[in-house]
Design goal:
646 residues; mainly alpha; two-stranded antiparallel sheet; 33 helices; extended
């Protein structure tokens, strides 16, 4: 059953004068940005308040949230007949849906309709494989020019924002990117700008175009949720049909991995090449998870590459699903409709109409609303805060003047309940003040009349014990042994006075001991320098190479002592400055080591192989240039054809 809640069912409350029509394959984010620009709606926060009834949210480009609030604010101005079409045509939800479970899709549904978008992409698997959940906005200069000529406006095309797509299918050129800056673009609805073309267009590779076509076809197909176990069986059947099987009729993953890498040329030109090829021990490790761990979250890019390899097209994959008795045209029975989402439930912030009316009635307090709808006050407060409805915060009665009166009352020997009653605060507040001011001269436990009578006697006996120990040059510890009962009583009832009395106790003077001879800093500097120089060769010959940092170099010398006296060791300091490696110098050593390892194994030198063997987390352009130079030098010496990369 399709979602049929019309956007015209919501109350229209807007001062928008002009609403543009939805352009072909336009994102909802782009349409809202054009509405805001054409109506000059003001600052970004004012725009968010007008659209989403929330000034603090961060609008998402491909998976917007708070759609019910937006439909309520805009009403019939939305260019979609219902929220079902909005999700299908204005977002990337159809791109992710086939790779979610029923339960996950239900949670995603709720967060898109009611939530603020926090954790949404993590729940959907967009952060899996470390591909990144917030890619840059992309546009094709030729598409922008065509849009301006045909429609008089430029907009964000949905197929250009698909993850991993970096080329335009229509014109075959590499897309331009707009990096979203957190400081300037965090809450803005931005539009593309047409820049003058000063450089010739960069034509995309055939494999990149094929992947972009597959991604667009997958969105257009709008497949429903596919059970993970069923999806794994479909993958397995296709892999075995292609001949990737072992003697025991299992999937031959090593052979399939090699064939997949050969088909896509080790993903040359793909945005996520390094992450797709990892790891070194098990290349394309995500491929096995598609078959053996289908419940694990994987980025849709991994599924699309597998579908392209196993089936050749999205249509063939859809036919395979239909052959497996999957009802591709009916939504999952566990996915709630919009009407169901609008009913009150314990786990959702969606409420019925009478609940909403009570919540938005500012004349009613949270306690009154809770009593009328049968919910707790905490739940009502949480619901009102989600909808940015003003609530009356609890008054802060513990101001500085009240705290000062409490501290004065605690200085007396009245009981804690008496202090609370005298100052007009709760007993819990009195205990919190005691914890906040531990030196307050007040017993921690309630004092009775008998305790008050004992106080001067206990103090006098403890002072006598301290005086006796002072004559014998003893310590407070010895006085505690003599008058342990008095010390324990004072510690419980008069700790502030006890601490003050003990602090005045003079510490015994320790007998002088023979002072060690002066340190020969010059000799120690020479000794440490020789020791470090002797260790440098061994450290540089480590296999695999490890970066020579100051900590590694100083650890054998006694790191703490040397660091605290480094100014006294000029010779050692100069040697350290020469020996410590920068990130670039260390990267060059790892590249040289990788080339040597590959040469010994007789493997043809290619940049991706060197990067894998080098195992560097960061790979700069300067390091890639150096690696290419080393490849050319090695090939020239061995009369091999050059295989360096640009």
């Amino acid at each position: 059953m399709a979602l049929q809640l019309s956007v015209s069912d919501f109350v229209f409350d807007s001062n928008i004068a002009f609403v543009p029509s939805l352009l072909p394959d336009e994102l909802l984010y782009s349409w809202l940005a054009r509405v805001a620009a054409l109506n000059a709606m003001g600052s970004p926060r004012d725009v968010l308040q007008q659209f989403f009834d929330c000034r603090t949210m961060v609008p998402s480009v491909d998976l917007p949230s708070r759609l019910l609030a937006m439909a309520e604010r805009l009403g019939g101005l939305l260019p979609f007949p219902n929220l079902d079409r909005l999700l299908e045509d204005g977002t990337l939800l159809p791109y992710h849906r086939p790779f979610l479970t029923d339960a996950t899709y239900s949670r995603v549904h709720q967060r898109i309709l009611h939530g603020d978008g926090k954790g949404l992409k993590t729940l959907m698997g967009r952060v899996a494989n470390r591909f990144g959940a917030h890619p840059a906005l992309r546009s094709c200069p030729h598409c922008l020019a065509d849009s301006w000529d045909r429609h008089g406006s430029m907009y964000w095309i949905r197929q250009h924002q698909l993850p991993g797509v970096n080329c335009c299918i229509t014109h075959g050129v590499v897309l331009q990117t707009v990096l979203l800056q957190a400081r300037t673009h965090r809450q803005q609805l931005i539009l593309p700008t047409r820049k003058p073309v000063t450089q010739p267009a960069v034509w995309a590779d055939a494999r990149q175009l094929r992947f972009a076509q597959m991604s667009r076809d997958f969105v257009v197909a709008a497949l429903p949720v596919i059970a993970p176990s069923r999806r794994a069986e479909i993958y397995r059947g296709a892999a075995l049909a292609l001949g990737h099987r072992t003697r025991r009729d299992k999937v031959d993953f090593p052979a399939m991995t090699n064939a997949l890498r050969e088909r896509f040329n080790d993903f040359q030109g793909f945005d996520h090449q390094v992450r797709l090829l990892s790891t070194e021990a098990t290349p394309l490790g995500w491929l096995r998870h598609l078959f053996e761990k289908p419940q694990r979250s994987l980025h849709p890019i991994c599924h699309l590459l597998a579908i392209d390899f196993l089936f050749g097209s999205v249509a063939a994959f859809k036919a395979a699903c239909e052959a497996s008795d999957l009802d591709l045209h009916a939504p999952s029975p566990h996915v709630p409709s919009i009407e169901q989402a609008a009913k009150p439930c314990a786990s959702s912030s969606a409420l019925a109409a009478d609940y909403e009316a009570a919540l938005r009635d500012s004349s009613l307090s949270c306690r009154q609303v809770a009593a009328s709808i049968g919910r707790s006050v905490t739940t009502v407060v949480a619901w009102r805060r989600e909808r940015n409805i003003p609530i009356h915060e609890r008054r802060k009665s513990l101001n500085p003047a009240v705290i000062h009166r409490i501290l004065e009352a605690l200085g007396s020997l009245n009981s804690l309940p008496a202090v609370a009653k005298q100052t007009g605060v709760s007993l819990s507040s009195v205990y919190r003040i005691l914890a906040q001011y531990p030196t307050t001269p007040r017993p921690r436990q309630d004092a009775s009349e008998a305790d008050i009578a004992q106080l001067p006697v206990r103090r006098e006996r403890w002072m006598a014990a301290l005086a006796c120990q002072r004559e014998e040059m003893g310590r407070v510890k010895d006085a505690r042994a003599r008058a342990s009962a008095d010390y324990a009583w004072l510690y419980r009832h008069d700790r502030a006075w006890l601490t003050s009395a003990n602090s005045s106790r003079a510490r015994p003077i320790q007998p002088a001991i023979d002072q060690p001879a002066r340190v020969d800093w010059v000799g120690r500097d020479a000794e440490l320098s020789q020791l470090l120089a002797a260790q440098l060769d061994a450290l540089r010959d480590e296999v695999p190479p490890r970066r020579l940092t100051k900590t590694r170099l100083l650890r054998p010398l006694g790191e703490t002592m040397v660091r605290s006296n480094l100014g006294r060791f000029p010779q050692l300091g100069a040697l350290l400055d020469k020996a410590v490696e920068s990130a670039h110098a260390f990267g060059k050593r790892r590249v040289d080591h990788a080339i040597a390892v590959l040469a010994i194994d007789g493997v043809q030198l290619q940049l991706w192989r060197i990067r894998r063997v080098a195992g560097l987390r960061q790979w700069s352009q300067a390091l890639a240039t150096y690696a290419n130079q080393q490849i050319d030098r090695f090939n020239a010496q061995n009369s091999f054809p050059s295989n360096s990369l640009p």
